[in-house]
Amino acid sequence: MSRTDSDQPPLYELKATTAGTGALDPRTALLMWGTGSIIVGLLISFLLVQGNLRMVVLVLLSVLSVACLSPRRGVYILTIFLPFMYYIRRLVLNFQEYDARDMILLFPAVTALLMFVGVIIFYGPLVYRYVSNSALLKACALLLGVFAMQVFNPLQGTPVVGMAGAMYFVVPMLWVVFGLLMTRDDIRKVFKIIIVIGIITALYGLYQHFWGLTAVEIYELKAKRFLKFLGDNKVRIMSTFASLGDFSLYLFMAGFLTFAQFWRSKRNLFLLGLFVLNMYTMLWMAVRSSFLMVAFSITILFTIYGRSANRVFVRGLVAMTAIIAIYAALYTYDPKRMYDQQFSTNPYVVHTLSGITHPTQENSFRGRLESWSSVLVTTFTQYPVGRGLGSTTPAASKFSEIESINVDSYFFELFYGSGLLAPPIFVFIVYRVLKDMLGLCLAEPDEYTHKMCLGLMAGFLLGSVFALAMRDTITGPVAWLLIGWTARQQVDRKLGIPPTAAEAVERA
Q1: Which of 3, 31, 150, 370 lies at a 20 to 30 A Cα distance from 487?
Q2: Alpha-carbon distance 283 to 247, whole Å?
Q3: Is residue 266 in a domain?
Q4: Are residues 91 and 171 in the same domain?
Q5: What is the pTM of this model?
Q6: Domain that holds residue 66
């Protein structure tokens, strides 16, 4: 008896399993997300009824932190979120009073810490390979260890002060590890995100200048004692950031990257217009250090545009000669004309140009020099082991009776807060990162991303002396991310791993 086609066993059978759901079963994930969504929805509804908007934001941010469990995706999310973090907090003030210890500000720090732990656990061998082959990463790990010890320095008060200070010093440094997972395409995307956010925040900053701050923004600045006037009660703007210092540092970063993108083709006048927009907005903050950082970064970009070591040297020599000649000419003019506002009635122009053209004769710079000298003398004579990680941050006054010292320099903060060991380590990091970045630029002259990174990092390092660029909670992570990415590129070249192969491994 012959068997018909209907008697043949099926090639496959569509049938639901009955052995139960496992951890990797799609139904398990669906059940967890469904149950979690219901719980989050009920919790948010309850908090809205109670009128607790701050807790609603915290719940939503906790959900967002789950999306950051993938480190590379987390870098994108935090890069977008950080410039608007204080604006979101400001919106809550429409409904609740100002709280100096607002838990919303902990979200990026806690998320970055969880991402760091995840990288160490799941990418441990990869991290070990890069650290063991990179002097730059070893120095970063050593500096991170010094910071960790300074968290518990009793001279700053309680350990809570040190842990709060770690948000400024330790958390941005964790991004070094994230840089080990980033590809060249990832870095380019991060740059594009920064350029776009720079445009948005610059436009909002101009809105604040010409149409005024909202009542909530003025309330917050008064509560933080950050309300800055500059002659005739003109308010210095801060856009979506916590202060005008944070805003100016971000516009430095966005402005330089915009100019670098324009200089790549020298044809896109729209990018040049956006650069002018950033610089024009920076004028209404009158933060001289940010203008100097932009100028220095652009000078470095011009210098390394040469395709060989000899050309780079010649370009650098020309740039140095030009800078010396310009300042030699400027110092022939009497700075009192600027300080007395005889050449302009605009206080922003006067404040900015007087500080840039005659920095050594400007009162605020002289005050900084006196402060830095005092820090050095105190460190060498009284506190060689430092006074604690939080002693130079707002954490000192928030969590203890000790007033924080305003140093206005990341480099000199290292002396005061972390003692004599931290500054030499940082100097070595500066040397290595500049050496490695320049080596990458010369080894791959057609790779423009390396040139942009070196120019941007040069500005960051200058800003670490004259400002707080490397520990800023918004721009600082980008600087340390580039340091980690540079170390990865250098190690890959050292081990003979082609860039395309290295990126393919990470994307697998």
Answers
A1: 150
A2: 12
A3: yes
A4: no
A5: 0.87
A6: 37-114
